[in-house]
Amino acid sequence: MSDSPLDIRFLLLAAIVALSALLVWRWWHSIDRGSGEPLRPTPVQFLIGFVVNFFDTLGIGSLATTTTAFKALRMVPDERLPGTMIVGLTLCVATQALIFISKIEIDTTLLVLMIATALVGGWLGASVVSRLPRRPIQVGMGVALLMAALFMTVAQLNKMPVGGTALSLSGGPLFLALGVNFVLGALIMLGIGNYGPTFVLLSALGMDPRAAFPIMMGSGAFAALLGCLEFIKRRNQVNQPAIGLAVGGIPGVLVAALLITSLPIDLLRWLVIVVVVYAGFTMLRPARS
């Protein structure tokens, strides 16, 4: 007898919890306590974690806003930004996935396939990005920020596809969605968030826009949970701000999940767009030198 949708969701949730525990264990054992590296986050780092993950749960995204904050405060070297963000934000994304996979209705077969392709893409992406020197990372993340700003602007102008009512895909649309999600899983490792592109893609294919939430957050969680193990293995993260993102971010996710239906965020989205565009150009400028 095949597993019921409820059983499959339970297995997905159990896998997220297990991979999160593995992440914490590997991260803890990767820290060189004899190096004198500070580990206790500052209040500012806690605040950054709370704010960016609060916005992330509302669909604004956290990679671009975290990059902006870290660049403005010169908190993390450019070449270690992807590793620090992915490691620090992954537990927060996992928390989002636990909430939305358990709460929003969607075809479980599609959900599993989309998560699987993003997971493979994230693993391959991490193995490449973790080896990149400073200049390619600056260029990649500069472009990532401008792409994020583009998707945010499209959403604000109400130009995104409104979507349909479908909760599943089949045939050509299914293969298209899987292929795109594979690429998005890899790009997550370069700091390009998958939320905006996933929302646009699934809406354009006629799906209920609400179905994008468990897909994009589940895909992001599994891709990041697997991919960040590669960053930890190579010690590509700066631990102090990464810990601040994780510890400050989880409460931000929980608060946003409670307020998501009532908080007015239109003005905040425009503000984020302006700041992200600025950060994108400031990332690209030194890369030209």
Q: Concise description?
A:
The protein is mainly alpha-helical and 289 residues long. The chain is built from eleven helices and no strands.
Please trace the helix and strand order, writing H or E for each element.
HHHHHHHHHHH
Question: Beta fraction of the residues?
Answer: under 5%
Which spans have pLDDT < 50 for at least 5 consecutive residues? none
Structural class: mainly alpha
Task: Characterize the main sheet.
Answer: none
Number of helices: 11
N- to C-terminal separation?
62 Å
Indicate the radius of gyration in whole angstroms: 18 Å
Task: Compute the average pLDDT.
Answer: 80
- Helical content stands at over 70%
**Beta strand count:** 0
The dominant shape is globular
Main attributes?
about 290 residues; mainly alpha; 11 helices; about 0% strand
Q: What would you say this structure looks like, in words?
A:
- The protein is mainly alpha-helical.
- The protein contains eleven helices and no strands.
- α2 packs across α4.
- The longest helix has 26 residues.
- It is globular and about 55 Å long.
- The model has no long low-confidence stretch (mean pLDDT 80).
